[in-house]
Design brief:
α8 crosses α11. This protein has 15 helices and ten strands. The strands form two sheets. A five-stranded mixed beta sheet has the order 1-5-4-3-2. It is 41% helix and 15% strand. The longest helix is centred in the N-terminal third of the chain and has 15 residues. The chain is globular. β4 and β5 form a beta hairpin. The chain is of the alpha/beta class and 361 residues long.
Length: 361
C-alpha cells in the first residue's frame, strides 16, 4: 500500500514530534536498509520524519514491546555492539544514536552471502537481545530414558510421532514485533516458536534439538508474500532452512508495491506488478532450503496474461526465480488458487524450477 499523501507540512510534523530529523545524523541513509516490515528506509526527510512520528504515536497505544523492554533491561548487558554467531551466520546489533526513535541497526549476514540491514527502535533491539541472552544462559538437561535408544531409533520415533502441520502468519504486525525480531537474535533457529501444539518440542533441550528438524519437515508453510518469506527464513535460522520441505508463496511484495506506487503513482505499466525489491533475497534464502521438494507459487493473473512474454522472462525478479532449480514439485496458481500451469509462461517457469541442479544431474 502506498504512503498516504502528505496532509501536514514538514514543519508541522516536526512540531508534533518535538525534534527535527537530520539526514546527516539519521542512523541509516543506505538505500539497502529497511524497517522491520522490510519497507525501504525513505530518502526523503519528510517521510523519515513521518515514520518517526507514526512510531511515536503507535508506542503510546502498544504495551507489548514496552513490557519486553522492562523485563529485559535489568538483565541484559547493554554494551554495543552486540553480536550473535552460529556457524557462518552473524547478527550484529549497533546503537547508532540517541537522537531518534529508530536508533539501532541490526545487520544480518548469512554464510550464503545474504546481507540484510534493519533499522529498529530500542524496544525492538531489546527483544532481539532477550533471545540472545537465552542462548548464553543454557543449562544441560537430565538424561531421559529415550536417550538410551540409538539415535537412528530416536529419529524413527520423531518421524512417526510428530504430527503434520500448517504454519502461517495470522497477524503480520504481531509477527514482526514478536517472533521475527526476537528470533533474529538466535541464528541457529533453536528458539523460533514453530508451534505450541507439538509437545515434544517443549520436553527438554536435547529432545527439542533432535525433534525440531522433523517438525519442520512435516510442516507446510503458507506465506502471503515474499516479504513474509524473507522474514520467516531469517527467523527460523539454520535448522529451519535446512529442513523445510513444503512452501506455499504468493509472488508479490507489500514493500515493493508501496515503493513502486510512490515512485510511479500514475503508471499503468503491468510489469511494475512484478516484485523486484526483495526478489533476490527471497530466492537466495530459498536456495538454502536444501530439502525443499514442494513449492506452490501464487501469481497475479495479470502477470501471466498481460505482460509480453519476453518482458516477463527478462524481468530481474523472474530471472532470479528461474535460478531456483531442483524442486521436485512446482505448482503455479493465480491468487484465487486456480491452477495456471498450462499457460505458456507458467509452464515455462515451472519447468525451469523443476529442472535438475548440477548436483542432481
Amino acid at each position: 500500500m502506498a504512503k498516504a499523501r502528505p496532509s501536514l507540512t514538514l514543519v508541522e510534523l516536526e512540531r508534533k514530534l518535538g525534534y527535527k530529523v537530520d539526514s546527516l545524523t539519521y542512523p541509516s541513509g543506505n538505500t539497502d536498509s529497511f524497517y522491520l516490515d522490510l519497507r525501504q528506509i525513505p530518502k526523503s526527510i519528510y517521510w523519515k520524519t513521518m515514520q518517526e512520528l507514526d512510531e511515536c504515536e503507535r508506542r503510546t497505544h502498544r504495551k507489548d514491546m514496552r513490557a519486553i523492554s522492562e523485563r529485559a533491561l535489568p538483565e541484559l548487558d547493554l554494551v554495543y555492539p552486540q553480536t550473535a554467531e552460529y556457524n557462518d551466520d552473524t547478527v550484529s546489533l549497533t546503537r547508532k544514536t540517541d537522537a531518534y526513535i529508530y536508533n539501532n541497526t541490526v545487520d544480518i549476514h548469512l554464510g550464503c552471502g545474504l546481507n540484510l540491514a534493519l533499522l529498529v527502535t530500542n524496544e525492538e533491539a531489546l527483544a532481539t537481545l532477550s533471545v540472545a541472552k537465552l542462548r548464553q544462559n543454557t543449562s544441560s538437561d537430565s538424561t531421559p530414558l529415550l536417550f538410551k535408544l540409538p539415535r537412528e531409533i530416536r529419529n524413527q520415533i520423531y518421524d512417526f510421532a510428530l504430527p503434520k502441520g500448517n504454519w502461517q502468519i495470522e497477524d503480520v504486525d504481531d509477527f514482526n514485533r514478536s517472533k521475527f525480531i526476537q528470533s533474529i537474535g538466535d541464528p541457529s533457529g533453536f528458539y523460533f516458536p514453530l508451534s505450541g501444539k507439538i509437545a515434544a518440542l517443549g520436553v527438554s533441550r536435547q529432545i527439542r534439538q533432535e525433534a525440531l528438524p522433523f517438525a519442520y519437515r512435516r510442516t507446510l508453510f503458507h506465506l502471503d508474500d515474499m516479504d513474509d518469506l524473507v522474514k520467516l527464513l531469517v527467523a527460523v535460522g539454520k535448522v529451519g532452512r535446512d529442513n523445510i520441505e513444503m512452501l506455499e508463496l504468493a509472488w508479490e511484495s507489500r514493500a515493493d508495491s508501496e515503493l513502486k506506487l510512490d515512485e510511479n503513482p500514475n503508471s499503468d505499466d503491468s510489469s511494475l506488478l512484478l516484485p523486484t525489491l526483495h526478489a533476490a533475497r527471497c530466492v537466495q534464502l530459498l536456495k538454502q532450503c536444501k530439502r525443499l521438494r514442494s513449492l506452490r507459487l501464487h501469481v497475479e493473473s495479470a502477470l501471466i496474461n498481460d505482460i509480453p512474454p519476453d518482458d516477463f522472462k527478462a524481468h530481474p525478479g523472474i530471472r532470479e526465480l528461474c535460478s531456483l532449480r531442483g524442486i521436485k514439485t512446482v505448482r503455479i496458481c493465480d491468487l484465487g488458487h486456480e491452477p495456471v500451469d498450462n499457460h505458456g509462461l507458467a509452464k515455462w517457469l515451472r519447468e525451469k524450477m523443476e529442472s535438475p541442479t548440477e548436483e542432481q544431474e
